[in-house]
């Protein structure tokens, strides 16, 4: 029973990462600042790799779940704010929303990592992805400090 729950949560994380990748691509297209374009491109590529790795991990999990996974209401709130900030080309605001999105990501990873009987390979993958996101939060925090 636990494997089905883990499969569902990994699937939910996959959907989330796909959504975040789209947010980054949308921002990259709308922003003129070349440094931010590069940042958004790198982050979208990172999330694309995360998604590929999560899909491969889902193939390993024996018990599948047919329950559809969706995006959290918090994600939609951030995306709406993000789209408005993109429309107004508010780079500082965009960085703040990216920060919120990354915190939401880390929270999702931490929740999944607390699942009992998580396979070691899944655990290692999730820890690495979470740690990569946390590292980029630290870099983003420095950028935000400079912006304010």
Q: Notable features of this structure?
A:
148 residues; mainly alpha; Ferritin; 0% strand; elongated
Strand % is: under 5%
Q: How many helical stretches?
A: 5
Query: What low-confidence regions span 5 or more consecutive residues with pLDDT below 50?
Result: none
How many structural domains in the coordinates?
A: 1
CATH class: Mainly Alpha
Mean pLDDT: 84
Helix content: over 70%
Characterize the quaternary organization of these chains: single chain
Q: Please outline the major beta sheet.
A: none
CATH topology group: Ferritin
Number of strands: 0
CATH homologous superfamily placement: Ferritin, core subunit, four-helix bundle
- Give me the CATH architecture, please: Up-down Bundle
Instruction: Tell the overall outline.
Output: elongated
Q: What letter string, H or E per element, gives the SSE order?
A: HHHHH
Radius of gyration: 16 Å
Summary?
By secondary structure, this protein is mainly alpha-helical.
Characterization of this structure:
With 148 residues, this protein is an all-alpha fold. It has a single domain (2-147), classed as Ferritin (Up-down Bundle). It has five helices and no strands. It has helices at residues 2-30, 34-60, 73-87, 91-113, 120-147. α1 runs antiparallel to α2 and α3 (73-87) packs antiparallel against α4. The longest helix is centred in the N-terminal third of the chain and has 29 residues, at 2-30. The radius of gyration is 16 Å and the shape is elongated. The model has no long low-confidence stretch (mean pLDDT 84).
């Amino acid at each position: 029973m636990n494997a089905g729950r883990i499969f569902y949560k990994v699937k939910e994380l996959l959907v989330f990462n796909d959504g975040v990748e789209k947010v980054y691509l949308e921002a990259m297209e709308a922003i003129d600042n070349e440094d931010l374009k590069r940042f958004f491109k790198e982050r979208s590529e990172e999330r694309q790799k995360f998604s590929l790795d999560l899909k491969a991990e889902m193939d390993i999990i024996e018990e599948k779940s047919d329950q559809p996974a969706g995006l959290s209401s918090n994600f939609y709130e951030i995306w709406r704010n993000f789209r408005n900030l993109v429309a107004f080309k508010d780079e500082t605001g965009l960085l703040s929303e990216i920060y919120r999105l990354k915190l939401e990501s880390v929270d999702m990873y931490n929740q999944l990592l607390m699942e009992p009987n998580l396979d070691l390979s899944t655990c290692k993958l999730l820890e690495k992805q979470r740690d990569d996101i946390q590292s980029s939060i630290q870099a983003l925090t420095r950028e935000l400090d400079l912006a304010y």
